Amino acid sequence: MAQREDGRHPGRLNLVQGTALYVTAVLGTGVITLPAIAARIAGPASLLAWLLLALLSAPLASTFAALGARFGDGGGVSTYVRMTYGDQAAAMVGWCFYLAVPTGTATAAVFGGAYVAAATGGGAATTFVTATVLVTIAVLINVAGLRLVGRVQLLLAVLLVTVLLVASGASMSQADTANLVPFAPHGWLAIVPAAATLVWSFVGWEAITHLHGEFRNPARDVPRATWAAVVLVGALYLVLAYTVITVLGSAAAKSDAPLGELLAVGLGGQARVLAAAAATTLTLGATTAYLASAAKLGARLADHGDLPARLGRGDVPGTVPRHSLALVATLTYLSLLAIVILGVGVETLLRMTNGALVAVYVIGAAAAVRLLPRGTRGHRAAVLSLVTVLLLLLSSGRYLFWPVAIGVAALLFQRLRRRPEPTGVTTPRAGCAGSKPPAATTIATPPDAAVSPPARPDR
Question: Structure pTM?
Fold first, then answer.
């Protein structure tokens, strides 16, 4: 297999597939439930929270795109942090994302299951069974490899955009601006917790960093795919949030399936079945992307000794490491059981996941400020992102205990492993037994050292 100019084996994701990955990862599950949750927290004023996060997503996405174009690697944000702050910080960030995926995936699957329950008249059992089936299908798609993942995501992205446009367009004739009054029934400060909840709707930019090395031409395609997704995602979220509030009014805050309610208003009651089909398909797209991303990350962390070495086996281009995937899937199933058996609320899991991901954003943005050349668009975006995600971190409140606990666990694992200090030399990545090992990966030099320029300048 031919190698790229940077010495890595070529990936299998093209520009269109990469854009689809971003769209389904970021837009996938937020649209099917969160407009109602945000309306419940802040009323019509939740539109300001949507706008704030849509604006925030642009510099944040640009920051991770600039990093991915220069240092594309399966470790994603943990790789950038390792290059800047060392192994301990990289382990904590890597664990935060790796362990946020199971709780987040379980939450997303329950969101999709709730639509099926609403359409069929089923209860909690229907929701749980549907969620379990969705996770299982996503795991099987990943077992088949990244080529299938890319094709599936493209199909799901087209379906997602189509459903949102139909739902908004068909019901817009019933919109009533009187439903915007009172605009802030729970006070203006309610926008803060609403924004903290809506972080879920804009996560995904960091998730695809773990797949940047799988693009055929990361330096060219990663920034293009990112900006295409930023524009599409931001516009669709704002249109949908406005439509939910102006069409459904006070009922928006009480709905578990707002997208289904919009379709029912515009197309009739039977459209709830269509909404359920769409919601489960969209959920499948998001869970597939996150499981692939986390599996790749787990393998890279294993290569550095931050997770058991077994998780790094089978990490070759175009495939999803199965040992790492198996662990993430197992933790996801356990999260589903926690919802059913222990009665853990879905919103609790959502806020815990958001807290961990915002912590990843903060440290990742701080690393980007040091890694990206001053004066470039990427560096300016990194500075702006760092300021804004610090504010989001403060809004997470008590849910910050989760990333703190994960970070402590990561440090304890490192201490128990007693692994040797990195030597700064090239080390091979683990590959499948009997297969040709992939290209070697170079452990980063200290942050003040020179970094090889990218294939395409970030200007």
Answer: 0.69
